[in-house]
Input
Amino acid sequence: MAGSRARRTIVLIDYRKLKKRLWGQTVLIDTNIIIYLVEEIPPYADLARFVMRNLEDSRFSGVLSLISVAEVMQGPLRKKQSGLAQEVKSYLLTFPNITCQGIDERVLDLMGRDSRVSWKKLRSIDSLIVSCGLARNATAVLSNDLRWKRAISSDFMVSFDL
Output
């Protein structure tokens, strides 16, 4: 049919596999994972809730870039919900077992240095976020970003989509 678009079948990671990849690790959590939770985006919201619940239960530790916190706040701000944006910020900055990393000289020094990352395939802002995780010794990266999947080695990258 002319003009019809093929639907992509989404195959999600199974909870056991997700546990195996994350438990005991220090995990950089990308912005999209938090957005799935905050905005209840199917089919990923349940997996995001699972991640946060187990993070809270100390099954693993998390790292967020302050860039990601700002990106998550942007959704409510666009809707003129500044109070909600501040609640989201507070929630993320005080969440158990998450460390928030700002941009500093150490983060900048780590850009381009890890061979598990094909840095030229990432946008500058994404390189900064990944470097924030490296600054906090992340042993895994959790993201559903297609660019990240292409740029980060599969032994370092964890995604909700298979």
